[in-house]
Amino acid sequence: MRWLRFEKEGKSHYGILEGNTVAQVAGGPFTRHRRTGKTYPLRSVKLLIPVQPPTFFCAGLNYVEHIREQAAKRGEAPKIPTNPDMGYRFQSALVPHGHDVVIPRDAGEKVQYEGELVVVIGKQAKHLTEKNALDCVLGYTIGNDVSERDWQRGDRTHWRGKCCDTFKPMGPWIETDVKLETLKTTVRVNGQVTIEFPTNHMLFGVRTFIASLTKYITLMPGDVIWMGTEGSAPNLKHGDVCEIEINQIGTLKNKFVRER
Amino acid sequence: MRWLRFEKEGKSHYGILEGNTVAQVAGGPFTRHRRTGKTYPLRSVKLLIPVQPPTFFCAGLNYVEHIREQAAKRGEAPKIPTNPDMGYRFQSALVPHGHDVVIPRDAGEKVQYEGELVVVIGKQAKHLTEKNALDCVLGYTIGNDVSERDWQRGDRTHWRGKCCDTFKPMGPWIETDVKLETLKTTVRVNGQVTIEFPTNHMLFGVRTFIASLTKYITLMPGDVIWMGTEGSAPNLKHGDVCEIEINQIGTLKNKFVRER
Question: What value of ipTM does the predicted structure carry?
Fold first, then answer.
């Protein structure tokens, strides 16, 4: 089942996507809900981010080749994390599928995508185990953890390197029926495939991160966990279009433009 | 003027505090609002965090003595930040005035307070200057950036060191009329003063941080910016009561208990 959030005539609604038809819903996936009976063609609605997360968690370094390649680019030895330490991002940077990513005027050339699986939490949860970790998950969407590498390395925090306005595209919708083991991430820039990788080949998987996190932290409905990315990416420039596809979920597509 | 959020008969409301009387309001400080005519004695209502922030910014290292003392404790040379790089915290850790801070069962002994001024944003804002930075500010509250120092140093992120459930007390209310230059922070543990410092003696002040941040990031109504702390703190143990007072604003008081 696919949950999406959309704007129609100036108001935001949740909907259920069936083929190319959106069935409007009163309420949403985190509360009681019912179909209103109204339907719209998918192409006629404006997609919003599928959820405004109360807390925005981000796993960070979670694929071994990504860690090795980023370290090699800096001429350093790779530091492979030994524990699932959770990072986080600014909610203010989130934009939906189809929204432009605006590269700040004074950003450097090393603006890159990171294609990520996003876990969407459906239920309040604490003290989960690896075995029951997925009980709190509503479904999955896609994130692009856009990064400006000079700021990421040079600043004391990731505020500009990762969290400039529009640097966190998320969407297009939440898919509730996913087999993690068979997911594949494919990234295309201007239609050309730049990387493909098995989405679930993580250093620490979804179950491990949720079990670890909920030892200390209560997850709430609507929280998101971005699961990190594999490999390295080319620099993106004004006019480039980046698509992140995860089979079973969908494709998150955004154009990059440089601020005038 | 003092805005607070409170629970009464299972519902949350905004109110305006006048002396020891709470005037209930429909709406709140970030939307249209009007007095309902209902009033309550302050002691009869349960205080909530004064705002659930869309994004939770945190300045981090922002007082020179704090940076020097923390470095000395680790036997390192102090690294004074050269730019106002903004950090952030998990919203999930926020609790109100009067709520217990629960020290996790397996936390070490070095659980410490950090008394901080909190800026509450009232209006959407981008590209502010140092001159007009305060135009977007609704008012100020108080935060306790509780830290477990072993996790803070040892983990790759601040997820456990700073963001365990209940580690971010914030309140008791928002004061809109504040003279930054004359603020003084006083911290007491079990009634004994442990530190006093001029609140505004920051490395980078409120105007500087807002001007810097809004070059890249849009602030939204309800966002909070925690401004860092001065000096060092004793270890807190089960049963200790920590009060952070900032004159003109109020006192944020929380008991520390260790998880059984």
Answer: 0.94
